[in-house]
Design a protein that fits this description.
three-stranded antiparallel β-sheet; 51% helix; homodimer; Phosphorylase Kinase, domain 1; Aminoglycoside 3'-phosphotransferase, Chain: A, domain 2; 15 helices
């Protein structure tokens, strides 16, 4: 039985998409020429949506449209169309604070749940670039601009409470997407679930050990509770290397359809976890042992720069633009006040660091034992080699979750990864 | 200039109130007789609203109506009428989980922002009873039933995330009332503000010391940030002895118009703070030194029973009804799981305890140096005696906020109060 959709909604085909774009003077001008001459390609390789590239004689656009179900699974797993609205809203709100780090939105249609945005070219999904061993020297600087600016400016450190509560209320509506994270990241990998899969039989014992690790599950449950009730800032919500389109010179953050007000550490930690997972996958992509040593070193340097850059930029914004209702600026005036604020910031960032390591670990485990895996590992064809990489990844993840307090700083984390 | 109000709203006078009640068959039946024979008394001694008692030959009701401004101040301080809706919603949601501890709501009128509820009689406001030195032996048991049940059942420990997020979104609308707390409790007493007042000149130096205490302000700012973004459970929001109507046999919690999703420790801590403030006020009400020793001992016993009873009942609910999305029950199965859950609960309750002490301290300071004082202290006529009580109260409050981690348990808190 087909899923019922609101009046006015229909999934695009080539003809209806062209008609839709041609109906908007700005978009028609951007593409140029006769609409019949436009070239449409469906390129969605993600799990959830339709994604089209439309090319005209003068220019091109990218169109992302929500389907009323999970594309990867089909109509058996319905998913609200409204996620397109939340992606549009989050992109708009985030872009206010960090110009040029997300795709420019050209048009949003609330009846079709379709976003028309700039086509990013020659950008590639960062995860693929990393599998190919490409170094992105500017990435850490770019992504920490994004993280620090968006997470600071949507928090109580910058916002007035009334504005923030209104925004929180809006994003409370994105509950089904949050539920996917709650289940797939924070619950399923730790219990027997038909959603789980792993490299079997190689990791059968490892998966069992995770399910039976009471200390680990207790720590994960604490993080899940934070995810459910710490409305600290407007998160991207799915901050991994598959949500980044990149060239050596440019970095764009895409796909914030999981956006909601949650713990700041989740966005930062998820990114660090995905970088560490990429690190542990590298040996599986080597044709000659050691040929990726330099690349591995770059990944760990990037992990350090992501945390250190985020921390430095976030604290700098707090110091210079701390105009929100939390941590009233009037409490921190004068020299004494400045020192007091530094102490507060240090304690705040330390707690954020430990939570980020925990969330990093959760991301690494879910990609090894849960439903959705990453191609970083999946593209290692030999299951024994893959399992060896995944086992290292799991061991590190468990330490990050259970012993976060034991890592003095991010250098201690990368030292542990280096082994 | 009069404040604009929505169509259909008008503040009650005697005639319009009788007409309103007579228009509802159930209410007319409850009051009995001819509406013209009903006796109306306006009894609002609070700061914000109109409150009427209406008596008929067969029964009586209490009617609470929001005014579009703060009654105490007048039209110069507008306040949204919607607070009546939030009180109505919070009472309804809380009462589901703890029958008989709040007034029964008989009718809510969304156009008049008026709640008709049972009249509580012979109940008195608990604060007045405590000034008179009346012991309420059942209070601690009753109020911890209320706190544990309402805070547990509206948290992620019991609720499913989608239901909770919908409720969070609703109460995000109560932002103006939250702002009163943010300003009056967490900000004004720590800065120079025309809102502040204190027993002067006796406490001038004490007030200055608070404003210059950078460690204190840092700790208060941390608590304020929690108040702004920790959406843990649906709080009463104004949980002090003036929000409790009581007899030796019955306890009712009234006036949850400040309700919102916030940190559990705020409700618990605010109550403990108000009890401690009542404790420090007692010597000011003695005609003969020491005549209230027994009463003081009862108050401290009550402080202990409030924390211990809350903790015991909250944890028991968590263990037996932990059906929410946080702390998944599936993580804590079997004997190992049971022990793991106990460890989790112990850590959770310890953090909650320390935060509650901090919130208690904030409540004690705001009632001494901020805008709204309590009659516990205000009714001590001799300013030197009053200032002596208030100074003890301030000293304890600062310790609770700055050294919460140093109190091993609630007995250590009451021992410190005892001096």
């Amino acid at each position: 039985m087909a899923i019922e959709t609101p009046e006015g909604y229909a999934a695009f085909d080539e003809a209806s998409l062209i008609e839709h774009l041609a109906g908007d003077a700005v978009l028609r001008g951007r593409l140029g020429g006769a609409p019949a001459s436009w070239k449409v390609s469906e390129v969605g390789d993600g799990n959830l949506n339709l994604v089209f590239i439309v090319e005209g004689p003068s220019g091109d656009v990218c169109v992302k449209q929500a389907l009323p179900y999970v594309r990867l699974v089909g109509e058996g797993w319905p998913l609200p169309l409204e996620r397109a609205f939340f992606e549009y809203r989050a992109t708009t709100l985030h872009s206010e604070h960090v110009p040029g780090r997300m795709p420019e939105i050209l048009h949003y249609d609330p009846r079709l749940y379709a976003i028309v945005m700039e086509r990013l070219s020659p950008h590639v999904i960062m995860r693929r670039g990393m599998i190919d061993g490409i170094v992105y020297e500017k990435f850490a600087d770019h992504v920490t601009d994004y993280l620090a600016a968006t997470l600071f400016h949507t928090s109580d450190l910058f916002m007035k409470a009334a504005d923030k509560k209104a925004a929180v209320a809006t994003f409370c509506g994105n509950t089904e997407l949050c539920k996917i994270t709650e289940d797939l990241i924070f619950t399923d990998p730790y219990v027997i679930s038909s959603n789980n899969r792993w490299t079997s039989p190689q990791l059968d014992e490892d998966a069992r050990a995770v399910r039976e690790d009471t200390e680990l599950k207790r720590a994960v449950a604490r993080l899940k509770h934070q995810f459910l009730c710490k409305s600290e800032a407007l998160l991207h919500g799915d901050m991994h290397t598959g949500s980044i389109m990149i060239t050596p010179d440019d970095t764009r953050i895409i796909d914030p359809e999981f956006a909601f007000f949650g713990p700041i550490a989740f966005d930062v930690g998820k990114l660090i976890g995905n970088l560490l997972l990429a690190f542990f996958s590298q040996s599986g992509h080597e044709k000659v042992a050691g040929e990726r040593d330099d690349y591995r070193a770059w990944i760990l340097r990037t992990v350090e720069e992501v945390w250190n850059g985020f921390e430095r930029k976030f604290v700098a914004l707090w110091t210079s633009r701390g105009e929100g209702d939390a941590w009233p600026a009037a409490f921190f005036e004068g020299e004494d006040g400045r020192r007091s604020l530094e102490l507060a910031q240090r304690a705040f960032m330390r707690a954020l660091f430990e939570d980020a390591l925990g969330f990093a670990g959760c991301s690494m485990i879910r990609r090894t034992l849960g439903l959705a895996h990453n191609i970083d590992m999946e593209w290692i064809e030999d299951p024994d080699r893959r399992a060896a990489c995944e086992r290292q990844n799991l061991a590190m993840a468990k330490e990050l979750i259970k012993q976060a307090a034991g890592f003095a700083d991010i250098a201690a984390v990368t030292a542990r990864a280096r082994g």
